[in-house]
Write a structure and sequence with these properties.
This protein is 19% helix and 25% strand. By secondary structure, the chain is α/β, with parallel strands linked by helices.
Amino acid sequence: PFASLLYGIFKGKYNYKVLKYQLNFKDLPDAFDGFTITQITDIHSGSFTDKEEIQYGVDLINEQKSDVILFTGDIVNNFAHEMDNWIDTFKQLKAPAGKYSILGNHDYGDYSKWKNEEDKVANFEAIKEIHPKIGFDLLLNENKYLEKDGQKIALIGVENWGKGFNQAGDLKKASEGVNKDDFKVLMSHDPSHWEYKIKKDDFNYQLTLSGHTHGLQFGIEIPGIIKWSPAKYVYKQWAGLYEEFGRYIYVNRGFGYHAFPGRVGIWPEITVIELKKG
């Protein structure tokens, strides 16, 4: 165990894994058959120390050559300035159909002491301004349509909503202008939002992308044999793909790390999802 912890601190936190999935949907528009999404989440730039390793991770994201890149929250630990040294690195990310993002619970500054409310608000505004600096379109309880060959799918981004956490997310507001019959990809940072609000919603959110849990950065995973982390006792959906009521949620294990400066058994993740008609 001691050797595992040492490995996790010095190497495991940069042991990026690309996990690929193909998901079939009967109501996917024909033009989006084969459309690819790369999801990253939980950058937590305030924890970074190794520029070369982070560059390797960013290059690995670009190597996937996905149509769109989606980032599902927690760009910093607490403060906007934590991202200052990493803007030039993350602005290198490229995707022909665009790059879109949402906020996570750490982006609101709720875990720090502030001299006054004005400082907290200023930090929050500065965090939101990071996203366009790295080329991401930040969705704050709003949506965009992705169009291809005259057809479209809805991309919906909510602010953070978590059981026991900040609940700024407004699903109804974020979905304004979207039709019930549209194919929807929803970005919501905390998977408890899916469990308590999204999965049974009559509006039918076919695919939700989340992060937040990090898989607690500790556990055991052997594909097809075992998947365990203490995170399972806190979150019903804590890592990977889940399906209920014909709807999916994918919980990414996170790109960065926080609190414990490493990862043991639950490695940093880049997720690639291919949408298929069928």
